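pasting for ref
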Amino acid sequence: MEYSSKDLSHLGLVAGMCDKLELVSELDRLLPSEHSLSNGTCVKALILNGLGFVERRLYLVPQFFEDKPVSHLLGEGIEAPMLNDDRLGRCLDALYESGVSELFAHLSGRAAKILGLDQAPGWGFGHLDNTRFHVDGAYNRALDGEQVEDCLHICQGYSRDHRPDLNQVMLQLVVEHSAGIPLQMAALSGNSHDGVSFRQTISDYIGALDQQAEKRCWVMDSAFYNAQTIEMVGQQSYWISRVPATLAEVQSLKAQIGQAQM
């Protein structure tokens, strides 16, 4: 009898949570496929790879799973070579065609219900913010002058890393209050304006709600604070934000308050 060992590490916990949230079965329902390796299983494999504390190119995913108990993590009969870049690439294409942000919102909302978070105190609060990732390379800057519909531009924009010379891309998240689980996600061009993207996200969210649904309270930074956004949100939701320090009224009030009182 021969024995062999496999490296499970923390991935058993990740796979177990994916199973509890019925991630694979729901994705297979939404994105059916004729392939022997379903789209749901591919996504689960990418999650395991992404939470494996390594940065791997797509073609190296099979190498990542070589010493892992693949059949235990992903299902009987599945082997590491099946997780090649051709199959994973087709899965990513299917995700894109379906609408990544819409798919994410559906899956995260469903996960929150499975975990009972929709009944938890603070469920009505949504924390909305953007973050930026700077990158190297030219990418699609050559298209900056063209109006390409639904094209994400990796380009220069306002840099919080103090590197305005580098291209960047932005990620927007809406996080629920109780457990900090993201409910909505959107990838944005590097030159997107926080105030505009906040307004669009809230508008899309409100538009998708049932009219009888409970109003959400949005928590955002001062990028939210402008007349157009306040007028739109104030009629349909609650909000908490900070007034920008650039406003004359704020500067006047600050001038009246001593440093020791702040």
